[in-house]
Design goal:
alpha/beta, FAD/NAD(P)-binding domain, D-Amino Acid Oxidase, Chain A, domain 2, six-stranded mixed beta sheet, five-stranded antiparallel beta sheet, 19 strands, globular, FAD-dep_Monooxygenase_BioMet, membrane
Length: 374
């Protein structure tokens, strides 16, 4: 394994049972925790900084599918033991705290990866700063624009645009008028009808975990298939590939005005108040939806999990649960060892257990995309 000019080996050693994970969002954190529990020394690399990130809400209460102790542990960590929809940020903070406290996990932020490779002895990554990290196995958890996927599946490197977007936000209940706040007994999940589009609304706990009126948060996701030209004009979508989300600061003022007008005739309270507050404060993100049906999850000592492995429409409410099952299955497959050829063999076992199921989940959502997206 030769070192190129400017590269600096950071963690090369002679110990066995080590893994490098690229991406420290939810799927990467869960994979790191699961592999560390299986006895691996894990190096976890994240291109973004350590500043907490925002997100909408997640469905985390499908624990009936948890067949292993590892899956059950991850579920409890992520959900805080509560069966409900959860704010993305709450799930991320719990998993981050667990990973940070685990001596088997070495977490590095501001470590973007531009290359991955492997040989018969190890797999490795090279960061944008020229650092080189080695592991017996390498796991890509770097999202739907995955760098690791390009190595695992060079014939099919990109997720494709599904033909629509989702406007998402999370609003503090105290920030909307008291007369529009949901009652204590209001359903925590709502799906009001629109005019050719639709909304998913969720009432989640406040940052302190409270469900007391006035302290909760309202998450909303507005499915919109009418602004694909805008996404292409702003570079969010190029050809059939999603490049990036539409951040609040980059949303044209005329688009915000249109959204406010449309919301006023489409959505009931409390969602209307939450949406208008998000628009007026520019506290929303437009996310072009991508999809990816995997042909493979593994190449030698390198595997992909989460959105790097399978990208599905949020309408399936299965993204988080699929990532959790990836992490748990991966850990169970490598638990007996990854020395020598065992590393690649363990990853092939992971693929055999996960590939068919995740393909079916993505394909189940594509039927919706074909009718709603355009």
């Amino acid at each position: 394994m030769e070192l190129n000019k400017g590269e600096n080996i950071v963690n090369k050693n002679n110990t066995s049972k080590s893994a490098v994970i690229v991406g420290a969002s939810l799927s990467g954190l869960m994979a790191a925790i699961a592999l560390a529990r299986a006895g691996l020394q894990v190096t976890l690399l994240e291109r973004a900084g350590a500043k907490p990130r925002s997100g909408a809400v997640l469905q985390v209460d499908s624990g009936d599918m948890d067949r292993t102790v590892t899956a059950q542990v991850l579920r409890k960590l992520a959900s805080g033991g509560v069966k409900s929809v959860e704010a993305w940020s709450s799930v991320e903070s719990r998993l981050y705290a667990e990973a940070k406290a685990n001596p088997g996990i070495d977490l590095h932020y501001d470590s973007g990866v531009h290359a991955v490779d492997q040989d018969v002895e190890a797999a490795w990554v090279v960061t944008n700063r020229g650092e080189k990290y080695y592991g017996d196995i390498l796991i890509g958890a770097d999202g739907h624009r995955s760098t690791v996927r390009r190595h695992v599946a060079p014939h099919k490197p990109n997720a494709t645009f599904a033909g629509y977007m989702i406007w998402v936000a999370l609003v503090e209940e105290k920030d909307i008028p008291e007369e529009h706040r949901p009652t204590l007994n209001a359903p925590r999940v709502a799906m009001p009808d629109g005019i050719g589009d639709f909304l998913l609304g969720s009432i989640v706990a406040g940052t302190d975990g409270s469900y007391a009126p006035g302290y909760r948060r309202l998450g909303w996701a507005w499915y919109d298939n009418s602004r694909n030209d805008l996404l292409r004009r702003l570079g969010c979508v190029e050809g059939n590939v999603v490049r990036h989300s539409l951040n609040a600061a980059d949303i044209p003022e005329e688009t915000l005005i249109e959204l406010a007008k449309q919301a006023s005739v489409r959505w009931p309270e409390p969602w209307l108040a939450a949406i208008l507050h998000s628009i007026h404060t520019r506290n929303l993100i437009g996310t072009p939806i991508a999809e990816y049906v995997p042909d493979t999850l593994v190449k030698g000592r390198i595997a992909i999990v989460g959105d790097a492995a399978h990208v599905l429409t949020p309408l399936t409410a299965s993204g988080f649960n699929s990532s959790l099952q990836d992490a748990a299955t991966l850990a169970d497959c490598v638990a007996e060892g990854i020395q020598g050829t065992k590393g690649a063999e363990a990853l092939l076992e992971y693929e055999s257990k996960r590939l068919k199921g995740v393909r079916q989940i993505v394909q189940s959502g594509q039927s919706f995309s074909r009718t709603f997206g355009r």
